[in-house]
Design a protein that fits this description.
403 residues; 5-stranded mixed beta sheet; globular; alpha/beta; binds S-adenosyl-L-homocysteine; 7-stranded mixed beta sheet
């Protein structure tokens, strides 16, 4: 067992850590620089009194995470308790017959920053697959204890992992993401709100679905799609389009730059018994597509826009914080009067107020008017810690264009 190191909290921030602030960062804590990833540290005040305990693991965000306000041992039993609490909190998900994929452990929201665990199963009546994502080399040092703690408490077919611990949070390709259990033939078919998705846990960073949009997707399917034409921009595997088609859309159009998106989107339609040739799946830069749609006087009843926070294509770079207003102005032009724009962002550094300002500016500059119909944040399985609201990253606004 490595010995625990004491680190002093800067005076102005002691109260915050006493209340459970979880991020270990050099802005708030002295002498962090030379300590190895994976070291357990006690955060103390200026009189060396214990405040909280954590581990070091450098991520794109911060230097590590607080694990406990008690001076306790960080071992397999510690991880077992955290995982047990997280599993209990998702009990209704495990009992659901129409949703068989969801997040079972959401980093600091469940008490361990830098670690997420997602669950994917063909049916909740049988053992499923767990996917652990490690966000730093520091948390990965506890792999044995964490995997043991998970295996002891769940009925699993297999455990897979993703390492995302270079400094930009990029996926590290180990060629083999299998951890334990029996190897699975992917894709497996999961259900979310009764909709099927093909999932791959052994094929690079992407699994085929972002689990945090389940409530938004269901809303689109049940409330807004019937008889409508829908444009899904930055469509990835077309999840929003599949829901819309199942909700009775006249037609969906999915636009994504990545070549793989064509085949992936067609696959998701097919496993839901929708003939992909009845839908438009377009591999193109969305900004090119907007020009084309304007030239052809195309107008959609609904446009979904859920871009990555940053993206670089051959000609453009896109960033949510600089370009969202411009993006919305393009979309306003091709949305029918009375139509809906579903504007989404997962960019944590953009708060709801600034996001609303972007929307307001886009409509003003387009000489158009809107009302906000619905607002969504993360679903229940993506638990957020009250001491760290920065992690409440998802913002989705249903905007009705009225002029
Ligand atoms: N909305 C999707 C997730 C989007 S992930 C969903 O709900 O599943 C981001 C996607 O944006 C990626 O698939 C990427 O290929 C695509 N992308 C990035 N820049 C783009 C651009 N300029 N034009 C079109 N697609 C782009």
């Amino acid at each position: 067992m490595n010995k625990t190191i004491n680190l002093q909290i800067k005076p102005n921030f002691i109260e915050q850590y006493k209340k459970g602030y979880p991020l270990i960062t050099p802005e708030y804590i002295f002498d962090l620089e030379d300590i190895d990833d994976g070291t357990i540290v006690n955060l103390v005040d200026n009189k060396k009194r214990f405040i909280s305990k954590g581990y070091l693991g450098r991520q794109n965000k911060g230097y590590g995470w607080v694990l406990s306000l008690k001076d306790e041992q960080i071992d397999t039993d510690f991880f077992k308790i955290k995982i047990k609490e997280a599993l209990d909190y998702r009990d209704d998900f495990f009992k659901s017959s129409d949703t068989t994929a969801f997040r079972v452990f959401n980093s600091q929201g469940d008490g361990i920053g830098g670690l997420t665990i997602d669950y994917f199963s063909e049916s909740n009546n049988q053992a499923g697959c767990y996917m652990i994502t490690w966000y730093s080399n520091g948390i990965y040092k506890f792999k044995k204890q964490i995997v043991d703690a998970l295996e002891a408490q769940v009925n699993y077919k297999a455990i897979y992992q993703k390492k995302r611990f270079d400094t930009k949070g990029q996926y590290i390709d180990d060629k083999d993401d299998f951890v334990s259990g029996e190897r699975v033939d992917f894709p497996i078919q999961i259900k979310e709100n009764g909709v099927h998705f093909a999932i791959y846990l052994d094929d690079g960073p992407m699994t085929g679905i972002f689990l945090d949009q389940k409530v938004v997707r269901k809303t689109i399917m049940t409330k807004y799609s019937k008889g409508k034409t829908i444009l899904n921009t930055f469509s990835y595997t077309g999840a929003f389009s599949v829901y819309a088609a199942l909700g009775g859309a006249l037609k969906t159009t999915s636009v994504d730059l990545a070549n793989r998106s064509f085949e992936k989107t067609a696959e998701q339609f097919k496993i839901n018994n929708i003939d992909p040739s009845t839908q438009d799946i377009i591999v193109e830069d969305v900004f090119h597509y907007f020009k084309y749609a304007v030239k052809k006087n195309m107008l959609f009843d609904m446009v979904v826009v859920d871009p990555p926070s940053f993206a670089r294509s051959k000609k453009n770079t896109f960033s949510v914080s600089k370009d969202y207003t411009k993006l919305l102005k393009e979309i306003i032009q091709i949305t029918k009067k009375g139509g809906m724009i579903v504007a989404s962002t997962n960019y944590a550094n953009l708060n709801m107020k600034r996001f609303r300002d972007f929307i307001d500016k886009a409509f003003k500059e387009s000489n158009s008017k809107y009302i906000i119909e619905d607002v969504y944040a993360l679903p229940k399985d993506f638990k957020v810690s009250k001491s760290f609201l920065e992690s409440d990253y998802l913002k989705v606004i249903f905007i009705k264009k009225i002029k």
